[in-house]
# Entry
Amino acid sequence: MRSVLIFIYGVLCYAVFFLTFLYAIAFVADLPFVPHTVNRGFAMTSVLQATVIDAVLLGIFAIQHSGMARRGFKRWLTSWMSPSIERSTFVLLANAALILLFWQWRPLPGVIWETTTPWTAYLLYALSALGWLLVLSATFVIDHFDLFGLRQAWAALPGKSYAPPQFKDHFYYRMVRHPLYLGFVIAFWATPMMTSGHLLFAIATTGYILVAIQLEERDLVTDHGEKYRQYRRKVPMICPWPRPAQRSEPDFMPSKR
# Structure
């Protein structure tokens, strides 16, 4: 029964992720069929108040996401929680922080830029959609169901076993070390109308991504030593600029956070 409950918990956490991911697309793209977006939601009382609230919401997500990804926190968590639900719990709380952000976000007035021709708007929407597609597809390049805790929960069932997926250096990871983050940056910045609130969101999330990469790569160097250092020298971090040297095949797992 305990194993079945762990599996049900993992499925529920995955369902929360999937719905939150869909809402995130609508939130950033300011789609009309959701109640709160980056440009619509609560009435703003003052620019300062709205900015402070938005900054706090972004900070809550950043602290939760990076804090729970650290090894020390995971060791503490699994000292009293089954390792089979550690990843699912991370996913659940990360999405809870996002849901809070979507719910309480305060739009800011002012338009930084806006396209004047329909084809330009369509092009930017298509570019944003490409970014979201890159995010989702990159999770499958690693291991989508391991990334969101389902494999761990499934392995808790009787007769099942779990082994971390082995990373093979192929597809996106031959071009950049962090394709998920690249997809997020594209999705957040490619918009036909950049409002002040959207700009705050894009700047803050991009800044967080750059900081998070440094924390993750520090952990990866600790895990894999010189192998990761060589990989880091030969493969760009987030922008797929060509490198002159040929790259050898690393045999390590990139970060999943």
Q: What stands out?
A: Strands lie at 111-114, 193-195. The mean pLDDT is 89. The chain has one domain: 2-234. The two ends are 30 Å apart (CA to CA).
